[in-house]
Amino acid sequence: MSRSAVTAGDVLALTFVFALMIIYWPPDPPPPPWRWG
């Protein structure tokens, strides 16, 4: 079975993933361990 088009499920999954990334992505990432000290 070959797929040549994007289905509604693909759009829904991508939208969900991007929404999670945008919501949970830290605005300011913590510094690397070697800069803590």
What does this structure look like?
- It is a single chain.
- The protein has 37 residues and is mainly alpha-helical.
- It has one domain.
- Helix content is 46%, strand content 0%.
- The protein has one helix at residues 8-24.
- The longest helix has 17 residues, at 8-24.
- It is elongated and about 50 Å long.
Largest sheet, strands/sense/barrel: none
Mean pLDDT: 79
Order of helices and strands: H
Q: How much helical structure, as a percent, in the residues?
A: 40-55%
* Structural category: mainly alpha
Overall tally of domains: 1
Instruction: Please report the number of helical segments.
Output: 1
Strand content: under 5%
Radius of gyration: 18 Å
Q: Tell me, briefly, the overall form.
A: elongated
How many extended strands?
0
Low-confidence stretches: none
User: Kindly, what is the distance between the CA atoms of the first and last residues, rounded to a whole number of angstroms?
Assistant: 56 Å
Keywords: Membrane, Transmembrane, Transmembrane helix
Transmembrane segments: 7-25
